[in-house]
Amino acid sequence: MSDNFFDLTGKVALVTGANTGIGQGIAVALAKAGADIILTARRDPSETRQLVEAEGVKAHVVMADLSSIEPCDRIVSETINAFGRLDILVNNAGIIRRNDALDFTEDDWDAVMDTNLKILFFLCQSAGRYMAANGGGSIINIASMLTFQGGIRVASYTASKSGVGGLTKLLANEWAPKNINVNAIAPGYIATNNTAALQADKDRNRQILERIPAGRWGEPGDIGGAAVFLASDAAKYVQGHVLAVDGGWLAR
Ligand code: NAP
């Protein structure tokens, strides 16, 4: 173990949905800690690539649409081809659809459940097979406040993110003996594309800020710090945990 618990030098981290928002914040934070980064995206993540390389580590892009499980094995094999190993998987890509439960459509159910839960599981499986055969690793799934709470008008999102919490615990149970740490981060309200409509709605924005003890929206970098912790030796004995990074939202 390195003297610096948080040093990721020599490790390879794969971050999905890395072109923007929380995925970009996590990729840059892992790069600052010394990891080489595989960026997966369905749109060119050149901005993230530049930010990662500016930290003095390597970046490699794997283009993949995570609305089906088709690319999961390919993403892992391209990672090994590019950098020779895979130590850290961050399942960040996710979507949300809003509608009243009475009107919620099958398409809005399936699209969100597929990307947020089904493909997340199968990418864990592809990476887990490699890690189990190669000494272990760390998997970090991005959950939500709606892993703990019900939310409103986001039926499939709540179902998917609640599922991410359960799946994280199941995988920790099965894979901790294989030296694979599986944990999740539950972001609070983070300023990204995903929440642009909420930030732009004056009343909702005020209501949200009034409930956050920290008194501000989170930044993608706030989630990056938690990812470095869970990816590092500092978290070796942390298994199946869902870490809220929410400015105190759940404490209210
Ligand atoms: P974002 O800015 O909308 O980023 C979402 C990322 O997922 C983007 O890179 C997006 O790619 C990617 N993605 C979505 N569907 C994909 C697909 N089929 N194939 C490949 N990539 C796909 O939102 P964010 O806020 O950073 O969200 C990141 C994660 O954090 C999500 O899992 C979200 O549920 C979770 N989260 C966010 C908040 C928040 O307050 N922002 C709170 C709790 C949890 P494109 O850019 O190409 O669409």
Instruction: State the major sheet.
Output: 7 strands, parallel
Enumerate how many helices there are, as a single number: 8
The number of strands is 7
* Low-pLDDT windows of residues: none
Give the DSSP E fraction (strand runs of 2 or more residues): 15-25%
Bound molecule kinds, no repeats = NADP nicotinamide-adenine-dinucleotide phosphate
Structural class: alpha/beta
End-to-end separation: 38 Å
Order of the strands making up the biggest sheet: 3-2-1-4-5-6-7
SSE ordering: EHEHEHEHEHEHHHE
| Mean pLDDT over the full residue set | 97
- What is the radius of gyration computed over CA atoms, rounded to a whole number of angstroms? 17 Å
What would the principal axes of the Cα set say about the shape?
globular
Helix percentage range: 40-55%
What is shown here, in short?
The chain is about 45% helix and about 15% strand. It is α/β, with parallel strands linked by helices. The chain binds NADP nicotinamide-adenine-dinucleotide phosphate.
Task: Tell me what you see in this structure.
By secondary structure, the protein is of the alpha/beta class. It is built from eight helices and seven strands; from the N terminus they run βαβαβαβαβαβαααβ. α1 (21-32) packs parallel to α2 (46-53), α3 (72-83) runs parallel beside α4 (106-133) and α4 (106-133) packs parallel to α5 (155-175). The protein starts with 11 loop residues before the first strand and ends in a 7-residue tail after the last strand. The model has no long low-confidence stretch (mean pLDDT 97). The structure holds NADP nicotinamide-adenine-dinucleotide phosphate. NADP nicotinamide-adenine-dinucleotide phosphate binds at residues 17, 19-23, 41-43, 65-67, 92-95, 115, 142, 144, 187, 189-190, 192-195.
